[in-house]
C-alpha cells in the first residue's frame, strides 16, 4: 500500500469532523470521525468493514436487530451487510473504521499457517464484538493508514488484523435460518436484472417479469434476502459506480451522469447520507504518495 492520499473535513455541524484515506492500488479505506447529528442511510459495502468506537455511543440496525456500540467495542460488517447508523445520545460519538476488500481477506487467510484458518471467506455473525485485543489491533492498523508509516508495516498490520479478526470473532454459520430457497431464486433473478440495468429507470413489473413472480413477491423476497428494497439496491449500485468514476479522476458532475444520478447535487446528497463524506473529498483522496 504505497500510493495513497488522505483528506480532512472539519467545522461540521455541532463540532463534527472526519479524516478519510483510501489506497490507490488496493481495496482498503479508512475513516476517523466524530458525528453528532449525521445519520447514515441504510446501505452496505462491497468490503469487510471493521470499526472501533473511541467515545460516546452509536446505534445502528443490522440483520433485523438494533445494536449499540460504546467505547472500546468492535463493529464487524460482512460484505453487503445492510446497516444504518446514528448517535445514541446528544453527545455524539467518535469512531474509526477500516474497509477491506474480500480479495485481501482471502489472500491474508491463504497466507496464514496451515490449520489456523477457516475454509472460504469468513462470516461475522455478530456485528458488535467485545474484544480489547482486536480493538487494539484495529487502532494500530488505523493509525498506520491515516498517519505516516512504512508501507511494509502497514501491510503487516493489515494481515495481522485480518487473521486476528477471523480467529477471534468469525464463524461460518450466521446462527439463524435464512429465507426459503424459492425466495432466494426470486431475489437473485431480480438482482441480476438490477446489476445489468441499474442505469435504467426500471419499474416493479420489469423485475417481476424477470423473476417469474408478482411484484409483491419480488419485493418481499428481495428484502428478506438482501436486506434492502430493490430501489435502495439500485441506488447503491449507482453509488458504487460513481465511486469508481470518481476514483478514476472524473469530475463530479460527469461521474453523477455516468452513474445514473439526475445531477451533481443529487449524487452529493446521497453520497453524504451513505458514506459520510462528499464526492469531492473522496475524489481528492487519491493520486499522491504519502509523505513519510
Automatic annotation (TrEMBL):
Xref: Gene3D superfamilies: Homeodomain-like (1.10.10.60)
Which InterPro entries does the annotation name?
AraC-bd (IPR003313), AraC_XylS_family_regulators (IPR050204), Homeodomain-like_sf (IPR009057), HTH-like (IPR037923), HTH_AraC (IPR018060), HTH_AraC-typ_CS (IPR018062)
Which of UniProt's keywords are assigned here?
A: Activator, DNA-binding, Transcription, Transcription regulation
Q: Does the keyword rRNA-binding apply?
A: no
Ranges of residues in domain HTH araC/xylS-type: 188-285
Q: Name one GO molecular function term.
A: sequence-specific DNA binding
Pfam families in the record, alphabetically? AraC_binding (PF02311), HTH_18 (PF12833)
Membrane spanning stretches: none
> PANTHER family given for it?
HTH-TYPE TRANSCRIPTIONAL ACTIVATOR RHAS-RELATED, TRANSCRIPTIONAL REGULATORY PROTEIN
This one is known as AraC-type DNA-binding protein
Source species of the chain: Thermostaphylospora chromogena
Amino acid at each position: 500500500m504505497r500510493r495513497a492520499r488522505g483528506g480532512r473535513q472539519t467545522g461540521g455541524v455541532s463540532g463534527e469532523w472526519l479524516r478519510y484515506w483510501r489506497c490507490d492500488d488496493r481495496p482498503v479505506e479508512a475513516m476517523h470521525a466524530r458525528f453528532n447529528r449525521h445519520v447514515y442511510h441504510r446501505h452496505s459495502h462491497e468490503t469487510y468493514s471493521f470499526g472501533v468506537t473511541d467515545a460516546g455511543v452509536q446505534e445502528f440496525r443490522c440483520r433485523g436487530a438494533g445494536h449499540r456500540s460504546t467505547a472500546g467495542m468492535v463493529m464487524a460488517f460482512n460484505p453487503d451487510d445492510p446497516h444504518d447508523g446514528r448517535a445514541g445520545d446528544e453527545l455524539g460519538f467518535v469512531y474509526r473504521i477500516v474497509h477491506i476488500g474480500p480479495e485481501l481477506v482471502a489472500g491474508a487467510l491463504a497466507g496464514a499457517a496451515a490449520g489456523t484458518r477457516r475454509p472460504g471467506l469468513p462470516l461475522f455473525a455478530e456485528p458488535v464484538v467485545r474484544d480489547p485485543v482486536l480493538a487494539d489491533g484495529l487502532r494500530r492498523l488505523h493509525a498506520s493508514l491515516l498517519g505516516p508509516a512504512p508501507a511494509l508495516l502497514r501491510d503487516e498490520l493489515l494481515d495481522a488484523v485480518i487473521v486476528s479478526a477471523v480467529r477471534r470473532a468469525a464463524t461460518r454459520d450466521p446462527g439463524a435460518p435464512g429465507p426459503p430457497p424459492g425466495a432466494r431464486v426470486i431475489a437473485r433473478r431480480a438482482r441480476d436484472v438490477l446489476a445489468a440495468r441499474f442505469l435504467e429507470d426500471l419499474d416493479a413489473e420489469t423485475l417481476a417479469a424477470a423473476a417469474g413472480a408478482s411484484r409483491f413477491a419480488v419485493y418481499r423476497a428481495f428484502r428478506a434476502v438482501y436486506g434492502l428494497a430493490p430501489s435502495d439496491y439500485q441506488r447503491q449500485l449507482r453509488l458504487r459506480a460513481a465511486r469508481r468514476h470518481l476514483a478514476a479522476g472524473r469530475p463530479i458532475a460527469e461521474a453523477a451522469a455516468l452513474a445514473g444520478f439526475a445531477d451533481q447535487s443529487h449524487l452529493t446528497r446521497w453520497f453524504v447520507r451513505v458514506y459520510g463524506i462528499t464526492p469531492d473529498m473522496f475524489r481528492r483522496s487519491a493520486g499522491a504518495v504519502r509523505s513519510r
